[in-house]
Amino acid sequence: MMEASSAVKNDYNQYFVETGERPQNFIRDITAETKYNGYPKVKKLIEKKDELIRKRNHPPMFLKTDLKTFDLTTLGKFDVVLIDPPWEEYLTRVHSLVTEIEHEKLRPWSFDEISNLPIGEITDSPAFIFLWVGSESLDLGRALFRKWGFKRCEDIVWVKTNKNTKNPRLDYNLQYSQKTILQRVKEHCLVGSKGDVSRSSESPYIHANIDTDVIVEEEPPLGSTKKPTEIYEIIERFCLRRKRLELFGEDHNIRPGWLTVGTTLSSSDYDQRLYESWFEGPGAYPQITDFRGGREIGTTQEIESLRPKSPKKKEEDPQPNQGMQTGMMIENPMQGGFPPGFPAFQQTSYMATEDPYMNYLFPVSYTHLTLPTIYSV
Length: 377
What we know:
With 377 residues, the protein is α/β, with parallel strands linked by helices. It has helices at 12-19, 40-56, 88-92, 100-105, 111-115, 138-148, 168-176, 230-238, 272-277, 301-306, 322-326, 344-348, 371-374, and strands spanning 61-64, 78-83, 123-134, 151-161, 186-194, 214-218, 244-247, 259-262. Strands 1-8-7-2-3-5-4-6 form an eight-stranded mixed beta sheet.
């Protein structure tokens, strides 16, 4: 009789070696339609938040301009800035496999050129920045945060599937075989905060704990730098203020609730007077029911009753980093703040990274999940 330890198991790593099809292709329930199956309270919370955000999102605006010469400070101050700079790795990973036009679009900026963007001057206080750094520029991203006056508070990981790639082994060999030691199947989006925004104080600027720090979505075609649309949803549900700016945007980035600025946009419709009028005066939902007026989105009693609340700091905590030092799970820090039916994995796998009270997203990338838990058999 075969011992349990030697029983045949699904080996997704070996399958990847043989076919090029990535193990994450088999993660179940990753789409917006299925990820909350079995968690009706969370599904309802997301639906109510998204419904309110759609009401308060202004029509999309976009500005085609050269970011190396344009004075961004003329646009005013923003609550959220999303940036996807043309890092060198975006070009090197496709080599000469793209057209001359695409090659020009991917032409990298130097670190100094990126750091010279006046992000600190065009952001209000408090504010948040979401910076895509690919797989190679994490240290550069942190350096940019220091230059711009932000502190890193989260790291969102995009795990790339390749279900739709016709020849995944060939695709990988074309992209990465000349450079990498490990096979690159993810990218990072660093999140930085500016000003006094504490999750433990129930800040009026944020709704924490609604989303996680992992996105699982299909990789775009070779040469494209398109990022998952889920990043916008995370930002909009998290930050309760409405002035959002995206830099290095392309036509596919144009979205309600955002001002998109980029060199490769096909046209412009930016009207500064009209744009600023959408944020004039105080007020938020339910006092204001559309996009005209007020910097804040607002909320409803139903949303407040459904969303998980921030933990309360203990007056005395002699060993605040014990969880990080031992690698042990923290026993539910929400102190009864979870609504009934909230996913158990989000309640019990809240793990200390730097400060358990300072995480804004559920740190799923640090949870102890086993393959049988997240992969189909």
